[in-house]
UniProtKB/TrEMBL annotation:
Belongs to the CutA family. This is Divalent-cation tolerance protein CutA. InterPro entries: Ion_tolerance_CutA, N-reg_PII-like_a/b, N-reg_PII/ATP_PRibTrfase_C. GO terms for biological process: response to metal ion. Gene3D superfamilies: 3.30.70.120. Pfam families: CutA1. GO terms for molecular function: copper ion binding.
Amino acid sequence: MTDILLVYIPCKSEEQARTIGRHLLSKKLCACINIYPEMDSLYFWPPKSETMEEAHEAVLIAKTSKALYQELEDEVTKIHTYKCPCIMAIPTENINKPYYDWLKGELK
């Protein structure tokens, strides 16, 4: 297990994903972002209701360290437009050393 996390953040649009990603990069809270511009989500909303919603979203993946996760989560929560955004850290098992060294060097 490494100290690097992939942080999964669904966004309302590709534009929002790009805005949040650039914000995180500018604060050195992540070293790299990936944007998947098209994803469909299905979920019940409001919570515990019988109403199933469908949303067309974009996914932002931010690569960061465990040490920076809480600060990254706080920043996303401040600027994300969703009332209850998904900000989910996925641990990484193995990373090639040159990429790991580059990534760590880009973080604050």
